[in-house]
Design a protein that fits this description.
By secondary structure, the chain is an all-alpha fold. The protein has a single domain, classed as Orthogonal Bundle (di-copper center containing domain from catechol oxidase), CATH 1.10.1280. The chain has eight helices and two strands. A two-stranded parallel sheet has the order 1-2. The chain is globular and about 55 Å long.
Length: 288
């Protein structure tokens, strides 16, 4: 039976407590850091050699769908009532709204070093020491809204700009494409400043701290953000039912992207699953 992912603003006090408790237990067991390591490993830029699966590629969306499912399965082994909530950043847009509350993810980092000092993931609580993808800092950091160089979260209109594109992705299937739903949602733009970071990418920049870069999984908001990205993909699929994941076939001989992107029926590392098999999540979970 399919379970439900809820808007984080709709969680009851009990649901908030159980979600946080399951995350902390996963961290205590050492399993959470494995997710951080995996994301770092697959955070490849399109300027690097080899296969790209997690970012700057068509498989950005199915890769993170599977990544979320793996995390959710681990949480549900601890507490079967838990699912990953989503954060609709087009609506909950302030530094004091959900999910930045004392009983959920805690708030912004302090001005001196951006260390998060409130909530269950504060370093002083002793339950959330960063061990992967960090240098000197062992504590969670945030810079909500970027104090020195302020940016805004993406708006509903900016999200709609991506949603209304009926084509999933286009050649050369990387961060440079200006057409196609995938990159308009992933958010690799051109120019400097906030215009270079759209939708998904802009949210990472707005949160700041450890959410910038491959080790972004160190901040639990990563999962709430990507649950919303996954929901947006689901909405796009319903709106454009005749359009599917692209490329349908691997790039041909002589194409610079041959062997660098995953086609619809190819396996999506590190899992034994294809984008085609990940397009329909209805038998596993639904969104409230």
């Amino acid at each position: 039976m399919a379970y439900t992912r809820k808007d984080v603003s709709a969680l009851t006090r009990t649901e908030r407590r159980r979600f946080v408790k399951a995350l902390l237990e996963l961290k205590r067991r050492g399993e959470y850091d494995e997710f951080v390591r995996m994301h770092i490993e697959y955070y490849l830029a399109d300027g690097e050699r080899g296969l790209r699966t997690a970012h700057m590629a068509p498989s950005f969306l199915p890769w993170h769908r599977k990544f979320l499912l793996e995390l959710e399965e681990a949480l549900r082994r601890i507490d079967a009532s838990v699912s990953v909530p989503y954060w609709d950043w087009t609506r909950d847009r302030t530094t004091s709204s959900v999910p930045w509350t004392e009983d959920l993810l805690g708030g912004n980092g302090r001005p001196s070093d951006r260390q998060v000092t409130t909530g269950p993931f504060a370093y002083a609580e002793g339950n959330w020491t960063l061990r992967e993808g960090v240098t000197d800092e062992k504590f969670l950091t945030r810079d909500l809204g970027r104090a020195r160089d302020p940016i805004e979260l993406p708006t509903k209109d900016e999200l709609e700009w991506a949603m209304k594109d009926p084509v999933y992705d286009v050649s050369p299937w990387d961060s440079t494409v200006t057409k196609g739903f995938r990159n308009k949602l992933e958010g690799w733009g051109t120019g400097r400043g906030s215009v270079a970071w759209r939708n998904h990418n802009r949210v990472h920049r707005w949160v700041g701290g450890v959410m910038v870069g491959g080790a972004s999984v160190n901040d639990p908001v990563f999962w709430l953000h990507h649950a919303f990205i996954d929901l947006v993909w689901s909405r796009w699929q319903r709106r454009h039912r005749e359009h599917r994941y692209l490329p349908a076939e691997p790039p041909g001989l002589g194409d610079l992207q041959r062997g660098r992107v995953v086609a619809r029926h190819e396996k999506l590392p590190p899992w034994d699953v294809t984008p085609d098999e990940l397009e329909d999540h209805g038998g596993i979970y639904r969104y409230a």
